[in-house]
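Chapter review: from sequence to fold.
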Amino acid sequence: MEQIAITTEFIKLDAFLKFAALVGTGGEAKQVISDGLVGVNGETCTMRGKKLYPGDRVDFQGAVLEVVKA
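The token string follows.
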């Protein structure tokens, strides 16, 4: 599992996908989230504005990433 460090209190799911280089654009992030292809803490998430905090885990296309505080 890869760890992605954030310097803020939280990061929104769509921004996280871009920040972690899992998608190339915000539009692509919006699409994969709305298509139900992204999991947060083991559950499918379709809310692109979902706030992620340190300790949360994101699953996308076989990659598992954990949000950590920088």
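Two observations follow directly from the output. The first strand starts at residue 2 and ends at 6. The helical segments are 13-19, 26-34.
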